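Hello, quick one for you while I still have it in my head. A protein chain has come my way and I'm curious about its shape. I'm sending you its amino acid sequence along with the backbone structure tokens. I'd be grateful if you could look everything over and explain what you see. Here's the protein in full, and shout if anything looks odd to you:
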Amino acid sequence: MTSSVLDVAAIRADFPILSRKVNGKPLVYLDNGASAQKPQVVIDAITKAYAEEYANVHRGLHFLSNLATEKYESVRAVIARFLGAPDENEIVLNSGTTEGINLVAYGWAMENLQAGDEIVLSVMEHHANIVPWHFLRERMGVVLKWVDTELDGSLDAGKVVDAIGPRTKLVAITQLSNVLGTVVDVKTICAEARAKGVPVLVDGSQSAVHMPVNVDEIGCDFFAITGHKLYGPSGSGAIYIRKERMAEMRPFIGGGDMIREVSKDAVTYADPPMKFEAGTPGIVQTIGLGVALDYMMSIGMDKIAAHEKMLCDYARAKLDGLNWLNVQGNAPGKAAIFSFTLNGAAHAHDISTILDKKGVAVRAGQHCTGPLMTHLGLTATCRASFAMYNTTDEVDVLVEALELAHELLG
């Protein structure tokens, strides 16, 4: 239960749901790649915001509106600090990574790409970083260029750079695969792409929760995060957009808050980032996200990464000992995310159901990565994804549950 770098028992005590039982067994929550659980400090902040401080933000000019506005707007600086962004005005608040990438697709790419222009993607992208580009392929004739993973699940940064051609206008790449756990060398990709005059969008949905991130050092133009994976509320998130790119964008959604003046004949827009934040936002969700990020930073991202590396190494050794288990992806330096199948015809859903009987929560399916599943020759996998509150004891429970699944299904 202990860790050389984290007081995991103390951290677990901060998450009330981890003390419950499922099917009469202690909950072993290994579905963090889909959504992480919430610490009490986030739950309390959300409750207080609704019970004592709620009002709509911006221009209310009364006490509660001013208070809500102050708390909501303060999160922009928290996110900038968490991501290493030089200016909080480069942070656009939104509902999560999907909205952030769609903002780039509609607000930047549709303005700057034309038929025949190319977007470079890896085969292991999440659908949130694929479907918006398919929209451009369908509607504008944009070409999608795909880079495959290596046999061990790693992604060669050099091959991504080599895929950049004269018509390439954007590279859209994940920093950490939600299926394989592969960590991508986005810093090298960004440096080489910038030398070629090509912007890079980084999907940070998975990476930001597992490792320190500094967008200034990475050198990306766009970096998207989602709150529900960062121990924050669902419906919260943000995207970092380099100032030069903001100047090249038009608004994606129109409505209140993103305008300066509206008349019958004209409209003038607010300055960024407000220009890209139309309508009443997720006020309480965003406040909760700020508290979650402060919580993570108080623990220390380096310490979280070190603890999860220990978990990854321990789990890898244990899972490697199961010669009937097929783990997808074994790249050096991978994160503590393990996707697997059993020898034979056992379906991922059946495996997941048996694990659930032992209180072990994993995800089963394609994990919103259709192209990757096709590349791997699979229809579905089970995925165990770890977080800072998981323990080696829980790895042992997972292994015991897998042995039962093998006995019943193998």
